[in-house]
């Protein structure tokens, strides 16, 4: 019984130390690295709403679906293809995917 408690205690300590070691949260000051979007991945990405190809807008750092007029942001080099986070190109407003119009 004592050996089981020692093992559990060791594992709990190891997990806590693992979390501290590998999952440090950096402040904005510490995390000054910037990432760029790799345009080679465009051949694999499509608009999640229309399933049509996307194009990269370097000026605004967005992926554009010309078919339905939606722009998806790129954050730290990673495309955010969540429809709720996209904006319509013409009105600059977030899109409402639940809107039937």
From TrEMBL:
InterPro entries: Trm112-like (IPR005651). PANTHER family: PROTEIN PREY, MITOCHONDRIAL (PTHR33505:SF4), ZGC:162634 (PTHR33505). Belongs to the PREY family. This is Protein preY, mitochondrial. It comes from Tegillarca granosa (Malaysian cockle). The lineage of its organism: Eukaryota, Metazoa, Spiralia, Lophotrochozoa, Mollusca.
